[in-house]
Amino acid sequence: MSVNTETPKKKPSVLISFSVIILLVALLGLVIAAGGNIIPVLVIITSYLVVIGQFCGYSWKELIDAMVEKCTGLIETLLIMYAIGIFIGVMMYSGTIPTLIYYLINIINPNFMIVLSFVIPAIVAVIIGTSWGTAGTVGIIMISIATGMGISLPMVAGAVISGSHVGQLLSPMSDTSNLAANLAKVDTPSMIKRMAFYSVPVVVIATVLYLFLGFTSGSSEASLDAANQIRAEIASMFNVNPIAVLPMLLVFVMTLKQQPVVKSLLSASFLGLILGVVLNGFDPLYGIEVMYSGFNLGKIPGVDPASYSEVFNNLLNRGGMDSMNSSALLAIIATCLGAVIAKVQVVNVIVETVFAKVKSRFGLTTSVVAVTAMMDACTSSTFLAMLLACEFFREKFHLAGLSDSDLVASAMSVGSQFIAIVPWSDTAIYMAGITGVATFAST
Asked: Closest by alpha carbon to 144, among 312, 321, 291, 322?
């Protein structure tokens, strides 16, 4: 006769559950205000949750296993991050991004730079369905052009990130749209039509506001002399040739054919290495170094970085796998935090306490939005936030005579967008990494 020796599990108390959120917000506020790194804060909160979990009957092994299982699912995200680091560095080495800047920098009116940084990524995101792919290609170009023009990078970064996420709501190729359709038990076009009811007006309003910002934020004062200087410096360093744009086109073609993101980025990067040698005459061994360390003017034989402008140096000296190490570490720690907070059921207790008696349509919709945002912050996962919010409120929505589409639309609207401003989420980490603008500066 076997004896069940497993320790019985219990949920944390309401007080303990709320203490996790309060402590997280308080420590983050203090560290961010002091300009510190948020990674130690996440380690402290994760450790606190482990103590809570053991108090609730979970063994150390159970909690560690939860972290390991969640981090296993993070591997693809980390691969994408490092592939983006390689891609950015090699796109400088090949002259792809400098060539695009050369062609576009004097065509785009500075007054329209901010609104175009929203509209162009939005269109591309709807076509290819990926916010990361859009920001990692078109977004980098818009940021680089803004750098050359001397336009406020936080504003441009915010516009790029906003535009890149439009596809999450309105693209039939978006994994988020397809997940939402599955949760609502409808086809993807029907789900997109439901989302378009309010997301299209929001896009229109955002376009108007970004246009207004472009004319009122001092963008019109961007120096054309500086732009012309950047063009001259690009021409002196690179062989400005339409062929150099081929790696960027390859990424778009492979993405449209729904090839894996890592495969698309690395394929374009390998093509970029060849073009860097053929078009610009760079050392192929340096191209391999760029994949890890990023592009650096100071490492090109015969080139004196001091003879070029500071803007030009800042424009080109970026990328490489090494540039993503801090972001990757933050993503790992945040994932461990999300795993433990889900295992210990802290959010479940808060939801059951705060939203137990909500029954009206407005109250239910507001509750779903609040819970999804909280789950975004706690788990750093849009998918998990949407799934849990729908699980928590599905029965309540049915009792109120509301459909699954209403529930999913409410969760999706915030889950796919709010994640970009959670500073420890992989999306925010990724966006900050490719734009070079801190999360709170671009929100």
From this structure: 312
